Structures are given as structure tokens and as C-alpha cells.
Amino acid sequence: MVVGGGFAGHRAARTVSRQTRGRAEVVLLNPTDYFLYLPLLPQVAAGILEPRRVSVSLTRTLPGVRLVLGEAGRVDLELRRVHYTDPEGRAGALSYDRLVLAVGSVNKLLPVPGVTEYAHGFRGLPEALYLRDHLTRQIELSGSTDDPAEQAARRTFVVVGGGYTGVEVAAQGAMFTDALAREQGDGTPQRRPRWLLLDIAPRVLPELDERLSRTAGKVLRERGVDVRTGTSVKEATAQGVLLDDGEFVATRSLIWCVGVRPDPLVSDLGLSVERGRLLVDPHLNVPGHPEIFACGDAAAVPDLTRPGEFTPMTAQHATRQGRVCGHNVALSLGPGQPRMERYEHHDLGFVVDLAGAKAAANPLGVPLAGPLAGAVTRAYHLAAMPGNRVRVVADWALDAVLPRQAVQLGLVRSWSVPLDTSAPELARVPGRPGTAG
To answer: What does each C-alpha distance from 53 to 35, 49, 140, 181, 316 come to in angstroms?
Structure first.
């Protein structure tokens, strides 16, 4: 049984299914029937890609795996059962012989007054759809008022967090709102939408090579993004945000991209954790529980390339951990004492989409910028996606020659995507147990 259908869980389920070849029943428990390709989510928020392009069918890409729709709750280690709630609120339970925990991560919270009430994260499809509507709505509302202060506040967007997600959201968002303003016939420099990107680190993308960081910062500033390093939010209100340097920024848009934290499920198991991540050995096995494996963001995996450290929470590691985890689970189901594979992976480089034809990338350690980096970035995403490649390319081609469809769908409201949710892949709806409404 695999819990979680993200990068790690999807690869683990596929590997076990292929290697056991019908000798074992493989069950995948996931709240949705799709694998979400998170790196392209900013393009959904910017209206480049339609939501289904980044939502890859689990049943189509995982033949031989039984999908159970549900949100995992309590795990009974003694009885080897996972309790869950299905999309219609019904409780269920599944038994397992081997358990793979690949539940991923959720929005990271900080004790900043007002943030949980007025900020929105960016970890799931509902949040991306909400943000696309919200950006469109703010530009449209700014054009329907004669109050200069309200116009400025609605055209001001604050992104907190200068990592991958924050940088890509700011880059895509700035281009999107500029286009919306021009459509309204009001793209003058004086009324151009204002974007702020805040981070307490001394530079954006602090986890990357300094050359890539400089490239990203330069492109953002050329786009008109006000990049402020060494700065964060002290308090959030309905009227704006108070920065830690004392400045108050009037805004109706606070986008929270400060990072992620492991899914709270693993902390409730009663097993050893490291900063909320479940401790495993190099074989991705939980010590003392030969029947339990873990991989991805929710697992603290020893980094054999950097002794004494754990692997970072990235999609690159999650995908490869999923393969090793699935392989070891398949071996554990066979006779005898199998020689399990140890997880060891050297980073192959990183790509950051900066919107348009620009990006920053360092494939195999070679720093790239500009259109070449943009081409490498898109090629990497196509190679990494388990499906929908032709549809993604088609949307990219249409975006290159046609204006974006800037309309509000109104399907996801602000209360549907709270920042403190433990399931960002699910929008809150009236009547669903444990939710508002």
C-alpha cells in the first residue's frame, strides 16, 4: 500500500507494480485521482496552462495499481491498517503487508500575526486556480474605482519567499497582470501593477549557485518586481502588510511561498522524526519496522553524498527515492534476505522558469540563462512529466500566438483555500466533514 500519489508515491507504486508483475496487489491511497506536476503550477496561475495539463491521470499511468480515493488519517501500526476519509465523507480502512508513506508536504507556517487569515499558499491546484481568479479580479476591480488609494492597493501584490516557488510565481504573475492592465487600456507606467518579492535571505534562490541567483534577480527587476532581501512580514491585515523594517504596504494580495513542512500525518505515528520528517535508513526503511518504508518530502533520508545531512525536499530527490523505495519493497516481498538498494543521488542541476522565454538553469553544473535556459527548462519539464506532454506543448504554442483568456471562473473562493490546511490538494467545500461551511 502506497499513501500519497505525488512524485515519490507515483514512482514507488509504478515500480512495485512493474517489478512484482501481478504477484502482489498494489494499492494507492490518494485524495485525488491525478498526479499533480507541481513545477508547472505557476503557469496555471498565470493562465498559460489549463489545470488538466498538469493533472496526470493516476489510473492511466499506473496500470495494475488499484486507486482508492481518500485522505489518510490514523495509521494503526499494530493492526497494520490505514484509516481514511473518502471524498464523500465516508470512513474506511485498508490493511497492508508493506506500507509506503509518501504523503509529501504542506505550506510552512510562521508565527506572524494575521498571516493565516489573509495569506494564501501555493501547494495545490485549488490554490493556483484561486490565485488566477484573484489576480484577474484585483486588476478589474482597480479599474472600477475612482479612489487612487484603493486602485494602488489592488494593483499591489506581495510574495513572501524567494525560493523556487516564490520566484516563479512573481515572474509569471508580473507578466500576467501587466497583460491584464494593457487589456483594460491602462498599462501606463504610473498605474502599472506593482509586485514585491520578500525574503529574509541575502539573495533570491539562496539554495542555488550565486550566478543563477543573480540571473534570476536581474530578470525579476527587469520585469518591474521590487525584490527586497533581508526583509519579511511582521504583520498582515485586511488592508495590507507591515514589513519588519516598519514600512506598511497597502495590498489585497499576500502570496505565501516561504517553503514547505512535512505532512503532519507522519508526526502522529509515534515514530522517530527529524524536524517533522520520518527517519528512515539508506534503504528508505523505517528502523524497527521492516514492513514500513517512506520517501519524498515526508521522509528524512540520509544523504550519502553529504555525510551527516539529509536529502533536501525537492521533486528531483522524491522521484528517485520513489524508484528505490518501490524496488526495495518488491525485493522484500520475495524469498530469503534480499540485498536492498541504498539511496544515493548527486544533484543533476536545477531549472527555474522566469516566464516568457527566460529562465535560469544549471544542467549538470553548467550555468545557463536567457532563451537557451528557457528551452532547457521546458525540455526538462516535458521529460519529467509522466503524461500530458502533447497537451502541454499545445498550450505553450497557443500562448505564444494568442492572448490569454483573462476571465474569472469563480469556482474557488478564498475560504476554500486556507493557508493552514493539511490537504492543499483539496478545496474546502460546504458540508465536507472537518471543513468550514
So the answer is: 11, 6, 27, 26, 20
Cell of 398: 497557443
Question: How many Å apart are CA 340 and CA 290, to the nearest integer?
Answer: 12
Distance in angstroms (rounded) separating the CA atoms of residues 162 and 63: 39
Judged by DSSP in three states, 285 sits in strand
Crossing angle between the packed helical segments 210-222 and 164-183, to the nearest 10 degrees: 20
Prediction pTM value: 0.93
pLDDT at 436: 42
Q: Which triple of cell numbers denotes residue 195?
A: 509586485
d(CA 209, CA 190): 35
d(CA 10, CA 323): 9
- How many other β-carbons are positioned within 10 Å of the β-carbon of residue 433? 9
List of residues 6+ apart from 395 with CB closer than 8 A: 48, 49, 50, 53
Question: Which cell numbers in the block locate residue 86?
Answer: 473518502
- Residue 318: burial class (beta carbons within 10 Å; 0-12, 13-18, 19+): buried
312-336: average pLDDT: 93
Q: Write the CA distances from 335 to 157, 277, 330, 331, 339, integer angstroms.
A: 58, 31, 11, 8, 11
Residues 246-273 have pLDDT tens digits of: 999 999 999 999 989 999 999 999 999 9
